[in-house]
Structures are given as structure tokens and as C-alpha cells.
User: What shape does this take?
Amino acid sequence: MCPREPGRFVAAVALVTTIAVSAPAAETCGSVITAPLKAPVSADDPCPSSDPVVCRIRVLPMDQKVEAQRIRMSYHDLLEDMHRTEADMREAGATDEEIARELVDMRNQAKEITRAGMTPEEVRILEERNRVKYGNPLGPTADQLYARYGSWQQVIDASMRTSYGVDRELSLV
Assistant: This one.
């Protein structure tokens, strides 16, 4: 199931909150190919990642892991809209800074949309990680990214990257 209506950035809101949980088989969703999820590990097993989100996903019961994978697929789908927006803005003559600021805003909107389908505890963990790392529950601002990378093109690139660790744990890479 690929939860996205082409060209509609917020179309996933209803889908994210109503996704049915079922055992996943390998499927293609836009540019994301999913594989069957790995069985959860014991909470006593050491987590090889320093990312608390990855560690939490590793121990989720299978039905919750399936739901997390589907929500992550929705997030990836929303990020695909960002690629189209970048192309449209470039065609219209927008500067790298204008594009970067728009894409960072879109990414934050995508986070809000996908978190609508999560439990309050899951959202709390994500927001806590981002507050510690960026001082903002949704993640870095465009200005923070510019200060880190030094160019608006690199901000554009960063705004469309996802966490490899989370994607790997949810069998999306």
C-alpha cells in the first residue's frame, strides 16, 4: 500500500491515522522497497545504535513495527513531494535559499503529518531527541542547517535525507 495521492502533500494525513496493520510482504512504494520486517529483539539485547528511536523500533512488537514501517513509508512519500517542489521552484527561478527554506518547512510539515498516526509516547521520544539535538521538537531550522553546512544547496540536500538507521530497522533499505 502506497499511501499518497500524487501532488497532494497533505493527502497522507487521513491515511496515516487509519492504516490497517497486517504482516508486510516485500512491496514497492514510490522509490521505497520494503522487505519483510525482522522479528523484534529482546529489550535486554544491547542496541548497536546511538539513536534512541532505532533502539525503540528494534524491540517493538511485530504489529507495532508493521505500523511504524507504514508510517515511515508515508513520510518517505511526503518527501518525494519535496523533490517535485524543488524542481518546480527551480523552474520558476527561485534561489537556493528560497528553495531550502520551503523544503525545510515541508519536511517539518511531513513530520507533523506522520506523527499524527503515532502514539503520544512515540511522539514524545522523537520530540525529545530533536529537542536535545536541535533545540526544536521538529528538528533543525533552515538557519541551523545553513550554519552547519555553509551553503543553501547543502541545506536542500539535507532537508530531503532520511535516517538510514531508522529506515534500515524498518526494512526500507
